[in-house]
Design a protein that fits this description.
Elements (H helix, E strand, L loop, with lengths): L1 H15 L10 H15 L5 H20 L4 H5 L2 H10 L11 H25 L13 H22 L9 H22 L12 H21 L8
Helix pairs in contact: 2-3, 2-5, 6-7, 6-9, 7-8
Length: 230
């Protein structure tokens, strides 16, 4: 008796955990799935990826049926869904970003601009015309870090990033404070002694600026940094 009871219980549990499948779809949704499979065969996707996409869609289609939604309403036309499967899931442009990566990106941008600007200036003028410390590499680095931090904070506030956006008047106040801090930092870094903060040859500035540009492009692709200044 106990063995029969266990077998019946096992049968009930197996029935309860029976996976959902395309047979439970409406005829319209089954027809959609049929044409989608035929279209996917014509793509370069592997059979495993094709089946994975189908398996991911079926539960959504079953849930949509309960709300009276067809597969076309959920996923668009078969052609549109094929393109979506090939391209993969889209990333949210307003998704939260790592603030330190944003700061690094902004600092590299400012550092690049400084070096390229001074490199071009030094090609057309004597080094003596620009005060030592004003174009010193250490001064540029400190200014780039401070500016990068300020730009990063403004990007986070203006980019929303899933939170309530800062009011315009606060952004204006923040901009004024940022300008004052940046100006004060610029004044202080000019006081750094020449041996530690000497001007460099024009060619060196241009090479450093180009290297900062290449590094910034690499980091943007490597870490998928979005919502940047440019």
């Amino acid at each position: 008796m106990s063995d029969d009871k266990q077998e019946r219980n096992a049968g009930v549990q197996q029935h309860q955990h029976k996976p959902v499948g395309p047979d439970e779809l409406t005829k319209r949704n089954q027809d959609y799935l049929y044409h989608l499979k035929k279209a996917l065969v014509e793509t370069k996707l592997t059979p495993e990826k094709q089946q994975a996409a189908i398996d991911d869609m079926i539960p959504k289609m079953l849930a949509g049926q309960k709300q009276g939604q067809t597969a076309r309403q959920l996923f668009g036309t078969v052609t549109e869904q094929v393109v979506a499967i090939i391209q993969g899931p889209k990333t949210d442009p307003n998704a939260s970003q790592n603030k330190w990566l944003l700061m690094l990106d902004s600092s590299l941008m400012v550092f690049m601009v400084f070096n390229l600007m001074y490199g071009i200036m030094f090609f057309f003028s004597n080094n003596s015309k620009i005060q030592t410390g004003q174009a010193g590499i250490l001064s540029e680095l400190i200014l780039a870090i401070v500016a990068g931090f300020g730009i990063m904070q403004m990007q986070l506030n203006m980019g929303n990033c899933g939170q309530k956006r800062m009011p315009i008047w606060r952004l204006l106040v923040y901009g004024v404070i940022f300008f004052i801090v940046l100006t004060g930092t610029y004044t202080l870094v000019m006081l750094i002694p020449g041996p530690l903060n000497a001007n460099l040859p024009a060619a060196v500035y241009i090479v450093i600026g180009a290297a900062a540009l290449v590094l910034r492009i690499y980091l943007k692709k490597r870490f998928n940094i979005k919502n940047t200044v440019f």
